[in-house]
Design goal:
By secondary structure, this protein is mostly helical. Helices cover 85% and strands 0% of the residues.
């Protein structure tokens, strides 16, 4: 009889503890719409910057291809392609820095449920 009462007490105690954890979780979930909007804006700007990075990488690949197929006697065209490649690589480093800053900003602002 004492074992049944102790088992019953244990089951009730565990049930109560799990219920209290669920209520604590409900209180800690962020439901403020301004935080959600801010996080949505931050993630959208990050997505735009990543899209820009992809475009710049595609332009770098095209530039390298154009440099490889340009005839040797087209000196000015080769020179312009080399200068353009330098500018593209500089833009790539800038956009990578911006993406890193944006990711740090998302973490710093405390956006819940955002995976980077």
């Amino acid at each position: 009889m004492a074992q049944r009462i102790s088992i019953l007490f244990l089951i009730i105690f565990i049930g109560y503890r799990s219920l209290s954890h669920a209520e604590d979780y409900k209180r800690t979930v962020i439901t403020d719409p301004s935080i959600s909007r801010r996080c949505d804006i931050l993630t959208e700007t990050r997505k735009e910057k990543i899209a820009n990075k992809q475009r710049i990488l595609a332009m770098i690949e095209r530039n390298k291809h154009l440099q490889s197929v340009t005839p040797e006697n087209k000196v000015t065209v080769k020179k312009k392609l080399e200068v353009n490649l330098g500018h593209l690589e500089h833009e790539l480093t800038l956009i990578l820095t911006q993406i890193q800053f944006q990711e740090e900003n998302i973490v710093r602002k405390g956006c819940p449920g955002v995976t980077l």
